[in-house]
Amino acid sequence: xxxxxxxxxxxxxxxxxxxxxxxxxxxxxxxxxxxxxxxxxxxxxxxxxxxxxxxxxxxxxxxxxxxxxxxxxxxxxxxxxxxxxxxxxxxxxxxxxxxxxxxxxxxxxxxxxxxxxxxxxxxxxxxxxxxxxxxxxxxxxxxxxxxxxxxxxxxxxxxxxx
Length: 162
Fold this sequence. Notes:
Number of helices: 6
Order of helices and strands: HHHHHH
Distance between the termini: 93 Å
């Protein structure tokens, strides 16, 4: 009888909880608590002994999807920068009152860009983990919409000066 005729052994399925545990992973690794930075090497439980936060072992992306975050941060930064540039420029020239009086639409649009850009930057930084988890299509639409809004605002403001 040849070796190829021998029956193949049935695969043995491991129980669901037999994979590497958090304690196994941290037994010989220098890893910091994501909440407080405490060194978790040799951890015996599932909570940080320093801050008490519950910990879990997960698989994540090596390179998170950053397109939406980068486009959002870039657009918010451009809006903030342009708004700040014009507002600071008019303040330095002591013409802020005249600017709001003579060019009210442009002035309020620039102020909205300054405040909206600031708010947008804060929201994107605080909620960045939610952006990482977005699918590629949602991130693409976020990037396109944020760029279109900033380009439209800049074009509008420039048309008010022309």
